[in-house]
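Still learning. Any example?
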Amino acid sequence: MPSSDVPDDRLPDIPDDGVPQDLPDDIRPFRAGEQVRLEDPKGRHHLVTLEPGRTFHTHRGGVALDELIGKPEGVVVTSSGGVPYLALRPLWSDYVLAMPRGATIVYPKDAGQILIAADIFPGAHVIEAGAGSGSLTCALLRAVGPTGRVTSYERRDDFALIARRNVERFFGESPSTWHLVVGDVAEAPTEPRADRIVLDLLAPWDCLPWAAATLRPGGVLCCYVATTTQLGRLVETVRAHGGFTEPISSETLVRTWHIEGLSIRPDHRMVGHTGFLMTTRRLAPGVTAPRRRRRPAPGAYGEDYTGPRPDAPSLTSEPSPAPTSPAPRASTPAENESCGHEADPKLAGRRTDDAVRPEQTAPEND
């Protein structure tokens, strides 16, 4: 049945001069102090805080915020300039892209991959190093739920203050499942054990001994780095440690599409490179990772390589055998005569391609 034929008795009529009195229990109206996302007809978003008596001014007129207080999500308000604005509660991605920043945030596309790659589950104990502006912290806290725990480390006081304010503003209070520590995670205690560790640091390889001592067997270590040099050193350090599984490295690129009738094409803009993810899992104490059987590319660990070198024989760089040059093609007697040269008696009676592929030459009969 088409949706237009289905009566919607969940939303009561909203009086012009008041707030609806009989909203269903599962529909939360906008309240004063909440953040609201206003979207104009061109898709531009504005995050505003609802304050009684306040007007949100745009270049297309002002929007009286009193018109939104008490209304359900999904209503449309019109500015004084006649422009309609759709009002919705902001998503996590809306919030982190608009919140105040100290350090660069972990962008939504990478945060989503971290939650899946690190397998952040409800009730997990997660340790995060490099809280930055708190964007990933908000995502981790929602993923672990009320029975989980997130411990965030941040070395800089100013970044820690920004992260605390952003997290408290997002949740409306300081979550009871969150503990923010100002200090170096490499000096953090190794007990109690953590289920997951997420590192967003400049040199995460320096924290590898601590991570190995803190992460429970089978736990996931996920690192977020910005450059290929960081990624290379991190992966080789994890391999050289021997107490983790083979690292998996990846990056995520997001491209939206324009769809309008028969015009279906990629958008002109995309969210390209922001960082790399490396994930690995902790082995049991005393267990060494099995040697890789895949031989590295020639020169991968050559003289110019200065990073950690794997000590397994199967990983050492071995010189590649020199390529065998094919034998020169033998000319035919007709070609020799046309060039004014006599035929080589050593090549007499042989086909032209015999000199090129001597292994295919049939043995001569006695």
